Amino acid sequence: MNGLAFVLRRTLLTIPVLWVMSIIVFLIIRLVPGDPVRTMLGFRATAANVAEVRRQLHLDEPLLQQYLDWAGGLLHGDLGQDLVSKAPLAELLAQRLPVTFELTGLAMLLAIAVGVPLGVRAATGGRWVKRLTSGFVVAGISIPDFWLGIMLVLVFAGTLTLLPPSGYVPFGDDPMQNLSYMVLPVLTLATAEAAYILRTTRSAMESVLQRPFVTFLRAKGISRRRITYGHALKNSAPTIVTVIGIQIGVLLGGAVIVETLFALPGVGRLIVTAVNQRNYPTVQAGVLAIAATFIIVSLITDLFIGWLDPRISDGASR
Fold first, then answer.
1. 50 and 60 in contact (C-beta within 8 Å)?
2. What is the dihedral of CA 286, 288, 293, 294, to 10 degrees?
3. In the chain, how many domains are there?
4. Gyration radius of the chain over CA positions
5. Looking at the domain assignment, is residue 138 inside a domain?
6. Residue-range definition of the domain harbouring residue 130
7. What phi and psi, each to the nearest 5 degrees, are found at residue 88?
8. CATH code of the domain in which 253 resides
9. In 3D, which of 93, 105, 261, 85 has the Cα closest to residue 171?
10. Taking a C-beta distance cutoff of 8 angstroms, is the pair 250, 193 a contact?
11. Of 37, 79, 30, 33, which Cα lies nearest the Cα of 54?
């Protein structure tokens, strides 16, 4: 019963968070300098034309009324219309979101596959292992994504000509070509995340391995491997999963840069283009989609941590 209360409580908490986030997104977009109507009209931006288009787009209404109209449309599944292409934003996001989800999903899988084993090894290995992993952590966190992406393009696409520098092919059309286009963006995005996960795993493992119950297990003659993976890693899992959930939000934000750098037709690149065009509805929809995804991932992370450690869900339900 406590577990069910924990799930319901966490799920209900996402509703006010989503509402507040929608207000923040709506207001922040209005702070971007420039007039979207004048950008759309270009040389035709006479006073009369600007006034007419602003009336048609309801941009002449008070901010509160604009927000209520927009929020009302969201509740009915209407995200609005792109100001430039006139395409429904629901269709645009349906085309772009799979690209962003593929990029962030593959990057996180790679980061976990590299960060967790290296973190365990760093916590249990010798001095040279600790030094090498510490060097990777410093380099991974310090190197900017855009610089790393450019270097990877120069090496693997320019010098070695092993991988394409940019572009995208849907996985359903050609799986192998899709993966070849995704290798460099995924490496660019996953490197820093692998470093963060490595550092978190190492710290959590070192903390657990110093606890009295580990000393007791060693005294009983339990093998080192069983203690490391059967007990220490299991007790470290909630901390590691928490950081992974947080870093998914970082990945979604980093996708904006990486998608632009590698010409991937994802939501991040759509947002950058829309910002340059002062395209309010598209920026709002794109940012809202990414923020809502992060909130949902955070909810799933909380529920998963509650399943890993029932004490958390029991405490939160009281």
1. no
2. 110
3. 1
4. 24
5. yes
6. 92-276
7. -60, 135
8. 1.10.3720.10
9. 105
10. yes
11. 37
Cβ contacts of 205 within 8 Å, gap of 6 or more: 119, 120, 123, 124, 228, 232, 233, 236
- State the amino acid at position 189 in one-letter form: L
SS3 per-residue string spanning the chain: CHHHHHHHHHHHHHHHHHHHHHHHHHHHHHCCCCCHHHHHHHHHCCHHHHHHHHHHCCCCCCHHHHHHHHHHHHHCCCCCECCCCCCEHHHHHHHHHHHHHHHHHHHHHHHHHHHHHHHHHHHHCCHHHHHHHHHHHHHHHHCCHHHHHHHHHHHHHHHCCCCCCCCCCCCCCCHHHHHHHHHHHHHHHHHHHHHHHHHHHHHHHHHHHCCHHHHHHHHCCCCHHHHHHHHHHHHHHHHHHHHHHHHHHHHHHHHHHHHHHCCCCCHHHHHHHHHHCCCHHHHHHHHHHHHHHHHHHHHHHHHHHHHHCHHHHHHHHC
Q: Would 220 be classed as within a structural domain?
A: yes
Q: What pLDDT score was predicted for residue 1? A: 47
Amino acid type, 28? I
Q: Do 263 and 153 meet the contact criterion of CB atoms below 8 Å apart? A: no
Ranges of residues in the chain with a pLDDT under 50 are 1, 317-318
Quote the CA–CA distance of 154 and 225 in Å, as a whole number.
41
In a domain, 195, yes or no: yes
Closest Cα partner for 99 from 257, 256, 263, 265? 265
Q: Is 284 part of a structural domain of the chain?
A: no
The tokens of 218 are what? 């060693």
